[in-house]
Design brief:
single chain, alpha+beta, six-stranded mixed β-sheet, 40% helix
Length: 907
């Protein structure tokens, strides 16, 4: 008998083995991806046993507006924040991505102020833009972005049911070092550990490649990804092919995608089209004498929203009306706009689409001719954009990916591959450097100070990658700068958006001491080596700086050599991760291509190579010992300073305070809603006969009076009460109504429960009838059950039947408002006890095997030759099989007690 009992009481479900099912999932942690765009946020999640999927927000939508608003001490996100922004534009903050990691006087910050003049933006102590709120509270872009990221994290936690801390974030590929650091700071403020910042076009390429892994082979093929979003446009040429990698000691062939060409335009996107269309609507309004609409932030925001809506409609229609009720001074606005009007307003933008494509192909060295073009991004749906793209690429663009979600799903696949506990299909990802980086230092040449520049990472160099630069002419303390290199490949209009070209200054001290410590006749100075790492987030890190020398030793100096090796080993053990043998340090994470040899692993100040002297064969060959001495390096950031520990703490405290306010507000609103809903529900049901007959007339009067008092209190001044007062009132009403709801539930569910136990009794009797045939008395060959076991089951069945008949009779003799005699819980217990007895016998039958017959004794007589021949010629007869036991006719039935609705859960 198969029992599947699920018990639900007062809205609480108690399925069997539920705790075991949950424990199997809570051991592993979910990871998420957040595709943070200028206009929308999409979140992906992967958790144990659940495939990659998009997280739904509270409106059950797959994307959320990247907007946060503050009004009357209430913080809102997404659609709610957009609604606040229509009436109170200054209180709703949007399009924050372009403000991250920029100084106050940055051109994009000034453009933002012109586009949205109703914001009060000032210069912070760090020199960054800062919003001034109504109550003089200030928010930096990092703090606002952090709150939006935390909101996405919360949606994912609600979806998964446990805390989430690890994520992969998408960013525009053109982000510089300061912008990338700012995004990681925002994520840290949101309580997120960033596994990787991934360029958005790379995430799209991953999403495209993982579903075409079978098409990737040793023959390279190319795809051009075109992504026009709200604020910017990017194009990336990606190469797919298989490569050989050495993992865990063996060579493996895996598919790989590598970004080989990128073009971008930071200010070309759907937002620019919307702003131009808004200006068109403003001029039409002014031409009709509508008044000074520019002086009204609310009217300007209404026009902006309507321009956005009309732009989207015109992507599928040739004409549409822009309509706004009470735009200004109770005057309505209506204007017909055609697709031709919009294309005329943006006529200069279409050529910029072509420029982005040409720069992507040009930066790849002309590779990828005839590559398939894949379209992503919401603004790419504009017909004129698609036409310009087709003209520039020379092929029809394909829409074979989800334009809105491709980056999110590609990033969550990357998150699963980086997180612990997940195994995904291998796909190597190699991104490319857009902004080249060089090292600049000075050196004395012929008595003059000469400025030396060495490229560290050139344009389109792949990363992640480690590189080393060697200074072999310095014998005393010195400094060097890390800057952006020549940016001739960047359009002139984009250069000012990069900001300052100076990244860091590194001051080295203790150089002379390191040289003197390792001086000697048999020691050769190999210079000061600075180790850099471009991590997979595209952030440059100075790993360490060390002095390196080579000591030549003979057999007589083996002891010293051994000590040197031990010292070197200890240095490696207690040094940084980068302190590996020199050959490993200077080797790139991938084999450099022929065109990249000039700037791959090691950059020297001079090109002089030492010629090793050849020793006579009769002399022992000298040994080379590598000596390393750490050099103090003080790195100072020259562009936008990151948050100091105190500043980070201040921002975190500000956000935590807002979170606490939200938590208390939600608790209060929930308590108020619960009280209101419960009182209304009680007032309605107490007048229904099926509920009223479960209590006495006196009890009904008490309940009605209490509900009336609570309702009057709520509508008078109760809405201003604290959370605790709402909960106290709710508990008081529940205390008076618990018995009514409990008895009603018992009377309603009892018939189904009685039917369930009767079914169990019938099945148990059928089993007992068959089981009696499996006793020694009934059949010696089928001695499965003892008489005692059969008697116990029969007794249990009879006792259960007698108990049921007696209890039903006693319960039927009671009124419905009297104490319940026969409860559903007692019926469930009887079913469980009877089921235990049946299962015991059923399991015994399953493991029982019939006894094998004893073998016949061997004959002692020797057979004659004729008997042997006869035995050989006689076919072998199969022994008679023992009679298989007759199968017990047991009906397997899922007996389920009645499910209870989510009524009241207090008893």
């Amino acid at each position: 008998m198969k029992m599947a009992i699920t018990f639900k009481m007062y809205g609480v479900v108690f399925p069997i083995l539920l705790s075991l099912l949950l424990s199997q999932e809570t051991d592993a942690a979910a990871v998420i991806s957040i595709d943070y765009g200028s206009e929308w946020i999409k979140t992906g999640i992967v958790s144990p046993g659940v495939p990659m999927e998009i997280v739904l927000n509270k409106e059950s939508k797959r994307k959320t507006p990247a907007v946060v608003a503050f009004r009357d001490e209430v913080r809102t996100f997404g659609e709610d924040a957009v609604t606040v922004g229509v009436k109170f534009p200054k209180n709703s903050y949007k399009y924050l991505l372009d403000l991250l990691g920029k100084p106050y006087d940055h051109p994009l910050v000034q453009a933002y102020r012109e586009r949205f003049p109703y914001y009060e933006i000032v210069k912070s102590e760090r020199g960054t833009p800062e919003f001034v709120h109504d109550d003089n509270t200030r928010f930096t872009p990092e703090e606002l972005v952090a709150q939006l990221l935390a909101n996405s994290k919360e949606f994912a936690e609600i979806s998964h049911g446990q805390p989430i801390s690890e994520c992969v974030l998408t960013i525009p590929g053109y982000f510089n070092q300061a912008e990338r650091r700012a995004m990681k700071e925002a994520a840290s403020l949101a309580g997120l550990n960033v596994l990787q910042l991934i360029n958005d076009y790379t995430a799209i390429a991953i999403n495209y490649g993982i579903f075409r892994r079978k098409e990737i082979n040793e023959t390279a093929w190319h795809t051009l990804f075109f992504d026009m979003g709200s604020a910017s446009t990017k194009a990336a040429l990606v190469e797919y092919k298989t490569v050989k990698t050495k993992e865990k000691g063996y060579v493996e062939t895996v598919p790989q995608l590598q970004v080989i060409g990128v073009g971008f335009d930071r200010t070309l996107g759907g937002l620019e089209m919307t702003l131009r269309l808004r200006e068109h609507l403003i001029k039409a309004w002014e031409a009709n004498g509508g008044g000074d609409v520019r002086a009204s932030p609310r009217a300007m925001e209404k026009l902006f929203r309507e321009a956005e809506r009309v732009k989207i409609v015109l992507s599928a229609n040739t004409e549409h009306y822009a309509q706004i009720e009470s735009l200004l001074d109770d005057k309505d606005f209506k204007l017909q706009v055609t697709r031709a009007d919009l294309e005329g307003l943006c006529s200069d933008l279409w050529a910029r689409v072509s420029n982005v494509i040409h720069r992507a192909i040009s930066s790849a060295g002309g590779a990828g001719a005839g590559a398939k073009v894949i379209v992503a991004g919401g603004a790419s749906r504009v017909p004129a954009v698609l036409e310009a793209l087709k003209t520039a690429a020379g092929v029809d663009p394909h829409k074979s990916i989800n334009a809105d979600e491709a980056a999110t799903l590609g990033a969550v696949y990357r998150a699963a591959s980086l997180a612990t506990g997940y195994k995904v299909a291998a796909l190597n990802v190699r991104d490319a450097v857009l902004l080249p980086i060089q090292v600049v230092f000075s050196r004395q040449v012929d008595g003059n100070e000469k400025l030396i520049r060495r490229i560290l990472f050139g344009p389109m160099n792949p990363y992640p990658q480690k590189k080393v630069i060697t200074f072999n002419k310095h014998t005393d303390d010195f400094s060097f700068n890390v800057n952006y290199a020549e940016l001739d490949h960047i359009p002139s209009n984009e250069l000012e958006n990069i900001g300052t070209l100076n990244l860091t200054q590194v001051v080295l001290t203790g150089v002379n001491d390191a040289l003197n410590k390792n001086a000697g006749d048999n020691v050769e100075n190999k210079g000061i080596k600075a180790h850099f790492n471009m991590d997979d987030s595209g952030i440059l890190n100075l790993v360490n700086v060390e002095f390196v020398a080579e000591k030549t030793v003979t057999d007589d100096e083996d002891a010293d050599s051994t000590l040197s090796k031990i010292g070197s080993t200890i240095s490696k053990l207690f040094g940084s991760d980068s302190e590996l043998p020199e050959k490993l340090e200077e080797k790139s994470e991938e084999q450099p291509q022929e065109a990249e040899k000039n700037d791959t692993a090691k950059v020297n100040e001079t090109t002089t190579e030492k010629q090793n002297a050849t020793e006579p064969e009769s002399k022992p060959k000298p040994k080379i010992v590598v000596l390393k001495e750490p050099v103090n390096a003080n790195e100072q950031i020259l562009n936008l300073q990151p948050l100091s520990p105190d500043q980070f703490k201040t921002s975190k405290t500000k956000i935590n305070k807002l979170n606490e306010i939200d938590r208390k507000r939600i608790e209060r609103e929930t308590a108020l809603n619960n009280l209101e809903a419960f009182v209304v529900d009680v007032q309605m049901k107490v007048d229904m006969e099926e509920y009223a007959e479960c209590v006495t007339l006196e009890e009904i009067e008490v309940i009605k009076k209490l509900c009336s008092e609570v309702s009057d209190w709520l509508y008078d001044d109760g809405y201003e009460a604290e959370t605790a007062m709402f909960e106290e009132k709710l508990n008081a009403v529940k205390e008076k109504t618990n018995q009514m709801f409990y008895k009603h539930w018992e009377h309603r569910e009892r018939p189904d429960a009685i039917a369930a136990i009767k079914s169990v009794l019938n099945n148990s009797r059928e089993f007992l009838k068959s089981a009696k045939n499996y006793t020694k008395e009934a059949s010696p060959e089928r001695d499965v059950f003892t008489d005692v076991e059969i008697s116990l089951l029969e007794k249990k069945i009879d006792e259960t039947k007698s108990w049921l008949d007696k209890s039903v009779a006693e319960q039927n003799a009671l009124k419905k408002n009297e104490d319940v005699k026969l409860t559903v819980e007692s019926i469930r217990e009887k079913i469980t006890n009877l089921d235990r007895e049946v299962k015991y016998l059923l399991n015994k039958l399953k493991i029982w095997r019939p006894k094998k017959p004893k073998k016949m004794e061997n004959k002692t007589e020797t057979p004659t030759e004729s008997e042997k021949t006869e035995d050989q010629e006689k076919p072998v007869e199969e022994p008679e099989k023992s009679e298989e036991p007759e199968k017990v006719a047991v009906e397997e039935e899922a007996t389920e007690l009645p499910q209870l609705d989510n009524e009241h859960s207090e008893l």
